[in-house]
Amino acid sequence: MDAQAPRPEILRPSPVRWLATGAICAGFVWAGSVIMPSHPALAWSCIAFFGLGVGVALVSLLPGASALVLNEDGFEIVSLFRRARVGWGEVARFGEVRVGLERLVGFDFVDGARGDGRLQRVNRRVSGFHGALPDRYRLDPAELVRRLERHRQAWCARHPGRA
């Protein structure tokens, strides 16, 4: 494989998915307001929970709120403006994973790269991977795995012995 780093990429989630999520949550907020007279505790719970869902969906539509940034050193997951960075040398593999009805991309850390946390062990038992990307970023999961692997393999070729 060519040791030259692939070009940096910024992948963004589908705004249609976030609009649909917000619309579904808004529907449940409306349903909560309808049942308010007969079931106030359930109604307030529904309004509060799904109202937060509407807020998260709207914030996720803002520029810079959500993305997957791939560069020569690793990838960065941006979610609700929070950033989590993972170096290519920390990842052992990428693969497709099914979480409920959703197909996502999972990844395993190299032994000792991020410790041996309880959450990683639970994730591994549930999905077969230590972690997963929160979105498909408008790509088929198989294509996203190929892109991530291309970046990881190029990093490994440029840093022999460190991968």
Biggest β-sheet: count, sense, barrel? 4 strands, antiparallel
SSE arrangement, N to C:
EHHEEEEEHEH
Question: What structural category arises from helix and sheet content?
Answer: alpha+beta
Shape: elongated
Distinctive features:
single chain; elongated; PH domain-containing protein; transmembrane
Describe the 3D structure.
The protein has 163 residues and is an alpha+beta fold. The chain is built from four helices and seven strands, in the order βααβββββαβα. The strands form two sheets. Strands 1-2-3-4 form a four-stranded antiparallel beta sheet. Strands 5-6-7 form a three-stranded antiparallel beta sheet. A hairpin with a 2-residue loop joins strand 5 and strand 6 (102-109). The protein is elongated, with a radius of gyration of 19 Å. Keywords: Membrane, Transmembrane, Transmembrane helix. The chain crosses the membrane at residues 16-36, 42-62. It comes from Luteimonas composti. This is PH domain-containing protein.
SSE layout:
Layout: E1 9-11, H1 15-34, H2 40-60, E2 66-70, E3 74-79, E4 82-87, E5 91-99, E6 102-109, H3 118-127, E7 131-132, H4 141-158
